[in-house]
Amino acid sequence: MSEPLLEIENLHLDIRTADGLAEILQGIDLSVESGETVALVGETGCGKSITAKSIMGLLPETATVPTGSLQFRGEDLLALPEKERNAYRGKQMGMIMQDPMTALNPVFTVGDYMTDVMKWQGTHKLGLSDWLSSKFTSNDSLRERAIEMLEEVQIAAPERVFESYPVELSGGMRQRVLIATALLSEPELLIADEPGTALDLTTEAKILELLQDLIDEKDMSVIYITHDLSIAKYISDTIYVMYAGEIVERAPAEELFDNPQHPYTIGLLDSIPSLSKPIGEGIAGELPDTLDRPQNCQFADRCPYSEPECREIYPARRETAPDHEVGCHLYTPEDAAAFDGELVDIGTPPAREQLENET
Known about the structure:
The chain is an alpha/beta fold. The chain contains 14 helices and 13 strands. Helix 6 packs across helix 8 (171-182) and helix 8 (171-182) packs parallel to helix 9.
């Protein structure tokens, strides 16, 4: 098998707050092959967006990564100096931000925004003299490239939109601008962070269809972040289910819907509205406090199937079927052995006291 385009192993992430150390990500393992679309799903607050920002190197200054690796084409991005990491951000990895209403700067036109992005992508590795000469790069060529991309995302009047301010555009049009900007450098990996969240259902469906067409046309690798499993099934090859900063289940999209195994995944699927069944009550309870993470199963207090061992022993992920992993005590080592499965050790984060002493 060829080397994955992106491979995250045992990624732990903490953020220091006024109240203490918040444990945000706990042992994330995620892999994206060339040309593959991966969906990262889970409820609000589970850590999806911060995982995307970790990949892009857009973390707040108060964030620390005590352990883990994040490899892009075999290069560990976490070990690179900021200047070298910038060579990947925007150039080889693009990101569509969640809210088109706030992602665009209201004081710049779309044209200003897109051409500035192109200038940055072309100059971040240049020396001072080269950078100064690049300031005189033909604005006509940059304008031509921007308008070309606006046309590619099916904007009917790209020249007019190029000269427009964000406030003059609808939400759907702004989202198309963000998609066009993310694709300016033709990145190998595109991260789409819930691009339809702030849009009405009709506009969201059009944006989703546009994205799918672009993914197919350009054969990109994609991480699509969403809380909607039905969207994940439509757009992805593989689905990672995330809960409280952990991956609790991973499977091919069709397999996950046909054979969900983690109680959290089952609860998410039962929450999807359907004409053939009554509206579900959803999953009772709340996400655990990031300032006081339990050392056992994170879902135990909300799980309808929890047993005493769920509150005593951390559930290692197991492969219960080909390409299907689940972190749950309902699936014993004997169950995994029946499928020739293997335990997946996600590692243990350093003790809170150790981290506090180091800082």
